[in-house]
Amino acid sequence: MNARTEPALLSQLSNRHLDALEEETIFILREVAAAFERPALLFSGGKDSLVMLRCAEKAFGAGRIPYPLLMIDTGHNFPEVTAFRDFRANELGAELIVRSVEDSMARGTVRLAHPGESRNVHQSVTLLEAIEEFRFDALIGGARRDEEKARAKERIFSHRDSFGQWQPKAQRPELWTLFNTRLAPGEHFRVFPISNWTELDVWQYIDREKIALPSLYYTHQREVIERKGLLVPVTELTPPRDGEEVVTRDVRFRTVGDITCTCPVESTAATASDIVIETLSAEVSERGATRMDDKTSEASMEKRKKDGYF
């Protein structure tokens, strides 16, 4: 792909489908506000939750989002992301609730197999504790169906039982955009307004709306290690192993999460429009290319979701 073809490709990408996706997302965000008493929007400071936040601004108006923002913090998040999360919540005047996996560890409800174990999967426990604490009846998340196969099986309004579990064979039909939001005591919904978006849609929307993101999403130089086909960032939590060579590369993060399981990709993309072009030629999903904990199997992720994962 050369410099002449890039503008031509960008000019062919119509905004019509972005308008349709935005309209659907706004409709779902308003539906949640109308149908539930105590909803919350899961907000990590990552690109997908920032896209949802922009849609929420359009749905309700700046400073008028009718539900709090909820963050489940592993304690191993990138500081650039958590700082941006706080900045954005403060800028909007939104209520931000943060609950930590470390607090669950102190209570004894989370126990690690060893100190270096990733805390990512244990967020489920802390999330369920937050749901019980605040009696949330709907949690709005930024998962998309194109991320991986287990997420593709899930409805937009995903019913969870009184144990917070997802039952794939007992999902409710969503014909003609009609949602069954009835709940028994103790049950709740996970709602995914951007289910039908793709990674490319997200970046096109970020480019169109000029949405500010944490700097990690754009090219920067970082020390990394090549391990099992991934570029593992060199940090205190992910030090090099014996025999591994540390190299400095131009990288960016396609997705951000727990430091212990999130990897960058090689890239010189410095703007959202650069990333749109890069994403057009991507052959591996963002989670498949960047998440160490997703290198197991579809069945493993599905089990996590059944146990209450996002």
From TrEMBL:
<dbReference type="InterPro" id="IPR011784">
    <property type="entry name" value="SO4_adenylTrfase_ssu"/>
</dbReference>
<comment type="similarity">
    <text>Belongs to the PAPS reductase family. CysD subfamily.</text>
</comment>
<dbReference type="GO" id="GO:0005524">
    <property type="term" value="F:ATP binding"/>
</dbReference>
<keyword id="KW-0547">Nucleotide-binding</keyword>
<dbReference type="GO" id="GO:0000103">
    <property type="term" value="P:sulfate assimilation"/>
</dbReference>
<protein>
    <recommendedName>
        <fullName>Sulfate adenylyltransferase subunit 2</fullName>
        <ecNumber>2.7.7.4</ecNumber>
    </recommendedName>
</protein>
<dbReference type="GO" id="GO:0004781">
    <property type="term" value="F:sulfate adenylyltransferase (ATP) activity"/>
</dbReference>
<dbReference type="Pfam" id="PF01507">
    <property type="entry name" value="PAPS_reduct"/>
</dbReference>
<feature type="domain" description="Phosphoadenosine phosphosulphate reductase">
    <location>
        <begin position="39"/>
        <end position="263"/>
    </location>
</feature>
<keyword id="KW-0808">Transferase</keyword>
<dbReference type="InterPro" id="IPR050128">
    <property type="entry name" value="Sulfate_adenylyltrnsfr_sub2"/>
</dbReference>
<keyword id="KW-0067">ATP-binding</keyword>
<feature type="region of interest" description="Disordered">
    <location>
        <begin position="286"/>
        <end position="310"/>
    </location>
</feature>
<dbReference type="InterPro" id="IPR014729">
    <property type="entry name" value="Rossmann-like_a/b/a_fold"/>
</dbReference>
<keyword id="KW-0548">Nucleotidyltransferase</keyword>
<dbReference type="InterPro" id="IPR002500">
    <property type="entry name" value="PAPS_reduct_dom"/>
</dbReference>
